[in-house]
Each structure stands twice: as structure tokens, then as C-alpha cells.
Amino acid sequence: MNNIKVLNLYAGIGGNRKLWNNVEVTAIEIDSQIAKIYQDNFPEDKVIIEDAHNYLLEHFSEYEFIWGSPPCQTHSSFRYNLGVKFRGVKPEYPDMRLYQEILFLKYHHKGKWVIENVKPYYEPLIKGNLLQRHIFWSNFSISNFNLKHDKLREFQIPQLEELYGFKLSSYKLKNKRQILRNCVHPELGKHILNCAFKEKQFKLFEVTK
To answer: How many Cα atoms are found within 13 Å in the side-chain-facing hemisphere of 79?
Structure first.
């Protein structure tokens, strides 16, 4: 079976990618420091420091599977409830690139795709699939996945490093805890990739058995 050609947008340090197998990954991350961590952890991947939103528009047709995790802060229910309502944080417009990318992929991409974001403070404008603290939009069915971490918001850097399997002590970064919290758990990332290609894997089994 050939490797799946994957585009990993807004890649961060690669939590979602950590347990992927049989893939050829192009990762897009605009922050050069974070991109360096990703490249150190996944030296076989092609890492491009560029705006993911623009890259998607120009290169979407080159990939079998696209994963996007666009910026989530302006959609976050946690930021809205604790920050805006309780602490007086200034409200912001929701970043509508999220919905632009969902609609773009839905109507133009012929391969598999998934867009991930946090649970929003409003009713999603396009219905998604809520798993853990994330909401996913995709063109394939994502089955339930139970990964319980009741006190995730209380976790500090050492606990988050252990949870996600990354070590950031050698990097000079301002907000390591937030960078780690932005990760999708590797087991969940693996589960979603498997859901995307289970039909392909089943057909391969039928041919070879």
C-alpha cells in the first residue's frame, strides 16, 4: 500500500501527526520557532513556513488527505466565558477563515479532509462532530473516541509533555504550556486518520485475502 499524501495545515508541533504511519506529510506552520520543533520531531516530513490559509488555496488538489487546525482563540468557549464575560477581556470578531476552509474543502477537494477547532461559544454555523474538547468537520464519518482527561486545564508543562509525548526543555519559547495545550492528542489524531481511510484499508484486505 502506497503512503498517503497528507497536508497538515497549522501544524503546530505535531500532536495530531505523532502516531500516523504510512504517510508522506507536508506540514505548514507560520511560526518559525514552532516549525523548528515540528521538524526536529518529524525529520522525514516536509515543513514549510508559510500562511496555511493561502497554501491550502494553491495546493489542495495535490493531497489525498488534508488536516487543518485554524486559529481557535476567537471561537473558544473558554476564552469567552472566563475571559470576556468574567475578566473583561476585549471581545474580538470570530476568525472566519475556519468556515471559509470548511466550505472550500467541502465543494472543491476530491480527497479526504478534516478541519479541527475548539468547542465554540456559539452554535456552530456549520454542524460538526464534537469529540473531547474539539469539534471536527469532515467529509467522512468519525466514530466516537473516549480519551478522558478531567483535569487537562490544570495540567502544567511536565504533565502536558508526558501526555502528548513532546519535550520542550531545550527550546526557548514564551508560552510552552499554551503550545502544548494546542495539541490534538496523538491517539485522537491516529483515530481520525484511520476513520478517513478505513474503507480503503478494507478494500485492500478484500483484494489480498
So the answer is: 16
Cell numbers given for 157? 508543562
The structure's pTM equals 0.88
Four-way CATH pick for 4-148+187-208: 3.20.20.60, 1.10.10.2840, 3.40.190.290, 3.40.50.150:
3.40.50.150
Question: CB-based contacts of 114: which residues, under 8 Å, 6+ apart?
Answer: 66, 67, 68, 136, 137, 138, 140, 142, 192, 196
Q: Give the C-alpha separation, 18 to 41, whole Å.
A: 9
Residue 52, CA distances (Å) to 48, 92, 130 in order: 9, 21, 23
Cβ atoms of residues 19 and 190 within 8 Å: yes
Burial environment of residue 165 by CB neighbours within 10 A (0 to 12, 13 to 18, 19 or more): middle
Give residue-wise pLDDT tens across range 55-86.
Answer: 999 999 999 999 999 987 787 765 445 554 55
Amino acid residing at 83: G
Handedness of CA 81, 67, 185, 192 (dihedral sign): positive
